[in-house]
Specification:
Layout lengths: L1 H23 L9 H24 L2
């Protein structure tokens, strides 16, 4: 169960953190393109999905 918790945490929070690190380190001029905007929205929703999965994981 611990491995499942770690994998889901990394799968839900990892892409968001990596994306924002890349965005802050030089890709900020591209932040207004539609693809980047849509990625920000989708990656911003992943932590909420993780929160919804927590009751199922810990059951």
């Amino acid at each position: 169960m611990l491995i499942l918790v770690i994998i889901l945490f990394m799968a839900c929070w990892g892409p968001k953190i990596v994306f924002f690190v890349f965005q802050k380190n030089g890709f900020s001029q591209e932040s207004f393109k539609p693809l980047v905007y849509n990625m920000r929205i989708c990656l911003g929703l992943l932590p909420f999905i993780h929160s919804c999965l927590n009751p199922i994981i810990y059951r």
